[in-house]
Specification:
Largest sheet of chain B: 7 strands, mixed
Oligomer: heterodimer
Order of helices and strands of chain B: EEEEEEEEEEE
Strand content of chain B: over 45%
Number of strands of chain A: 12
Radius of gyration of chain A: 14 Å
Structural class of chain A: mainly beta
Largest interface: A-B, 28 and 21 residues
Helix content of chain A: under 10%
Number of helices of chain B: 0
Shape of chain A: globular
Distance between the termini of chain A: 41 Å
Distance between the termini of chain B: 36 Å
Shape of chain B: globular
Helix content of chain B: under 10%
Chain lengths: 116, 115
């Protein structure tokens, strides 16, 4: 069955530290990839997305993610985190089946806490 | 402002009772979704609807039912058959359900507690 794995459930960093959150998926066909973020008390928001083209995509607030097809990965990165990046981050994958049907699968999420 | 409205924010029910969670969107999106969010398990798809009057089961549909009589509304009923109904429920919509380049927009969620 298709699945999405986020390796770290909790990450604690100091401000200005670099961030990398891992995301791997299990499906050999066409996929489209997303990172969503949920700030405390707020609803889920789209952070960035990859459909095709340059595998390094840039999103809002200085985040970027790299799609490595051979590794089935879509890791999220930020060179220097801020306290305001404290949130829960979800990797999501759309599995594109033939016939126009697609299925969106979420990872379990990673809680990031950034200390001043 | 366009968006998705879920109500109520908190809902309490006694075991054995059915309960319906509301989800309304004014984004003119064709597709709507219900997810359940549990700690450490991410978001799991309950039901989704790509167009009005049509819906499909997701990964964990047992004990739930939905309807899609209007484009803007996609209510979810948690029935007494759902064995572990206490959870945080998220409704989402996307411009289309068949195109893969339609990111989801989420509501603020409803936290259901069944005792």
């Amino acid at each position: 069955a298709q699945s999405v794995s986020q390796h770290n459930h909790h990450v604690i960093l100091s401000e200005a530290a670099s961030l990398e959150l891992g995301c791997n998926y299990s499906y050999g066909g066409t996929v489209n990839l997303f990172w969503y973020v949920q700030y405390p008390g707020q609803h889920l928001q789209l952070l960035l997305k990859y459909f095709s083209g340059d595998p390094l995509v840039k999103g809002i607030k200085g985040f970027e993610a790299e799609f490595i097809k051979s590794k089935f990965s879509f890791n999220l990165r930020k060179p220097s985190v801020q306290w305001s990046d404290t949130a829960e981050y979800f990797c999501a994958v759309i599995i594109v089946f033939s016939g126009g049907y697609n299925k969106l699968i979420f990872g379990a999420g990673t809680r990031l806490a950034v200390h001043p | 402002d366009g968006g998705i409205t879920q109500s109520p924010k908190y809902l309490f029910r006694k075991e054995g009772q059915n309960v319906t969670l509301s989800c309304e969107q004014n984004l003119n999106h064709d597709a709507m979704y219900w997810y359940r969010q549990d700690p450490g398990q991410g978001l799991r798809l309950i039901y989704y609807s790509q167009i009005v009057n049509d819906f499909q089961k997701g990964d964990i549909a047992e004990g739930y039912s939905v309807s899609r009589e209007k484009k803007e509304s996609f209510p979810l009923t948690v029935t007494s058959a759902q064995k572990n109904p206490t959870a945080f429920y998220l409704c989402a919509s996307s411009r289309t359900g068949s195109s893969y380049n339609s990111p989801l927009h989420f509501g603020n969620g409803t936290r259901l507690t069944v005792t």
